[in-house]
Amino acid sequence: MNKTAKCKYAITVSFAIIIFSILNCMCVEKQDNYSYNYNDYNQNVSTANNPNIIDNVNDTNNTNIDKNNSNNSNSNSNINNNSNNSIGNNKKDKKDNNTNIKDNSNNSNNNNGDDNNTPNIHNINSFHYQLQNTEFKNLKNLNVSLIIIDPDDANLTKEQILELKKNKIVLAYLSIGEAEDYRDYWEDNWEVGNPTFIEDENPDWEGNYRVKYWNSEWQNIIFKKAEYIAKIEYSGVYLDKIDTYEDYKENGIDDADIKMIKFVKEIKHHTKQINPNFLMVPQNAPELYKYDDYKSTIDGIGCEDVFYNDDELQNKEESELKIYYLNEIKKDGKFVLVIDYPTERYNINDFHKKCEFYGFSGAVFNRELDE
Length: 371
Description:
Helix content: 25-40%
Radius of gyration: 30 Å
Number of helices: 11
Number of strands: 16
Strand order of the largest sheet: 4-5-6-10-11
Largest sheet: 5 strands, parallel
CATH class of the largest domain: Alpha Beta
């Protein structure tokens, strides 16, 4: 190649490089001016009226869900995936039963208790549920907002209950849908059919008998028990076997649910005359909350087997139904306690994540409730 040709070639190459550089700069500038702002996009999820949201938490990919509690004017929760944190990792040993779960219920200045240090009933962050082997000193040392105990097992004095109430809500367990042969009201000659309100024995709990809870004789027994509980200064009653109504409804007593609601209202009437701040807290049967009379009667609720039935995931339809009504109760400013009984570590952690997601106060215990 002669000298002239080489010169022309060099000029051509240089010109091409200049043109390429100009085009490249134009492309970069266009790209910079056309960027997405992903921070403007948030997935807003409302759980209060959407029971199907459980599909998002039944995913077993160990996805961790955090709440965004910033001062955003949008009333829906902002849910973000966080794969680096596990809500269950920092849980204490099950025997401590001091699980701390956030409760996002609305705050209130009313304690509904007799002591200024009593936790706000609209913000129950943690609770303990024990029906056997309770001791006052252990209950006193528990760092929880609320405790549920069997008054016959704990055998606390009025002074001890008042001491516990300085920093705890103290609920007394009372079964109103079953008679128990180890209670002081049980007489030696009692059996199925005698008295007439006693029916079949619970196959899962020896010594527990289903009762016709609308029977006046049975109701008078419960009224006296509840009145005694109020007189010795318990904060309220934790009413079990509300769901007994389901058995009777399935067997042709169409108003079995209404009969149960009336019974609970009567218990409230008897106890409020002794203590106007006495709490009514049923266990299970959250679907009764669809009745206005029930809404105005209860102060909170405890519900078992919401997410897990022992170590199996709860039936999806049943779980969704419970979650829907628990959300309705929570939306009305009342506390929601969720009690499940898984034993495997993964299931326990998953349970706590689900409670955190819905804003329920949740805890895991053994079914014997003896520790």
